[in-house]
């Protein structure tokens, strides 16, 4: 989600800077493909008045719509805001005061408009609530804002396996959607390590004025060989045979790993993938019942067999 949001801002700024820019040029700037750009433009239609000028004429904004791209860091903004205190304004040329005020006004107008777009985006994203909580707060806007502005958050988080609430100081790096839920990946100051947090388990959250730097952190490397969200240290190579009845549906699944899929002569599908954790993958395979057969590793084939035998015994009881 955060990657998409940053791409949307790039598109808006690119159209403002170069009215008439076309989809291919936007794709090059955003390091993506034209198909994704067209999808983004349809989504942005409710946020910005983007107009297609016709075949070969590119995109512009209708009316006087504009954003002010002062891509300042927090430190740069602070230094500039203190400028009048460090210079002898009597030696400055005429117009310094009004120019300074206009730049600062534009900066704060940009921040206000960016926040307005963020609110629009988060308003159109419908999130579910945990079954046991009727009044679960939605912190999606706060998290995205903190990621964009690179601000540390103070939060109270409920750890499910310990059934415990703890205060956390987190540098939010990325927001990741998984299985109809949002997860926050960031640096936890208490654990002094990268951690993954489920958004619905936050009990309170506030953005601080403290800034952070992601450094060399790479989310793709961090999530490598992870089926959904649970990460482990194993290296498990699964082989699963899917029946002809579900093979075509498996090919349409949107996955976070890159499996190897081989069509077999009888119309079935051989599915191979290497993962660092097993639970989420086994749960996914189980939903296909007898249309999915684990071939390897043999140990997991036996685990599935024992699970099915236990299930049969449970239903045979009077």
Automatic annotation (TrEMBL):
WYL domain span: 141-207
Database matches in InterPro entries: CBASS_pafABC_assoc_protein (IPR051534), PafC-like (IPR028349), WCX_dom (IPR057727), WH-like_DNA-bd_sf (IPR036388), WYL_dom (IPR026881)
Pfam families, A to Z: WCX, WYL
Domain WCX: 235-311
The protein's name in its UniProt record: Transcriptional regulator
The organism of origin for this protein: Paenibacillus mangrovi
Taxonomic path: Bacteria, Bacillati, Bacillota, Bacilli, Bacillales
């Amino acid at each position: 989600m955060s990657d998409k949001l940053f791409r949307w801002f790039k598109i808006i700024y690119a159209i403002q800077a170069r009215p008439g820019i076309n989809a291919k040029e936007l794709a090059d700037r955003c390091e993506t493909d034209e198909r994704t750009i067209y999808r983004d433009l349809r989504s942005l239609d409710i946020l910005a008045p983007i107009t297609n000028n016709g075949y070969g004429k590119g995109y512009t904004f209708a009316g006087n719509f504009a954003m002010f791209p002062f891509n300042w860091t927090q430190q740069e903004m602070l230094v500039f805001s203190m400028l009048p205190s460090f210079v002898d304004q009597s030696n400055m040329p005429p117009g310094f005061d009004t120019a300074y005020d206009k730049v600062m006004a534009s900066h704060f107008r940009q921040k206000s408009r960016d926040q307005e777009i963020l609110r629009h985006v988060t308003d159109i994203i419908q999130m579910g609530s945990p079954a046991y909580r009727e009044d679960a707060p939605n912190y999606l806007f706060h998290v995205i804002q903190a990621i964009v502005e690179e601000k540390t958050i103070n939060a109270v988080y409920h750890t499910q396996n310990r059934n415990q609430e703890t205060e956390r100081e987190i540098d939010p790096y990325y927001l990741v959607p998984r299985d109809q839920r949002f997860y926050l990946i960031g640096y936890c100051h208490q654990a002094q390590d990268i951690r993954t947090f489920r958004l619905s388990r936050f009990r309170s959250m506030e953005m601080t004025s403290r800034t952070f730097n992601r450094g060399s952190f790479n989310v793709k490397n961090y999530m490598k060989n992870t089926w959904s969200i649970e990460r482990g240290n194993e290296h498990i190579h699964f082989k699963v045979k899917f029946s002809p009845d579900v093979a075509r549906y498996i090919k349409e699944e949107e996955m976070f790993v890159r499996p190897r899929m081989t069509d077999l002569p009888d119309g079935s599908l051989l599915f191979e993938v290497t993962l660092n954790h097993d639970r989420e993958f086994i749960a996914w395979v189980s939903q296909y019942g007898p249309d999915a057969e684990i071939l390897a590793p043999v140990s997991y084939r036996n685990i599935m067999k024992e699970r099915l035998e236990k299930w049969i015994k449970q239903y045979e009881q009077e």
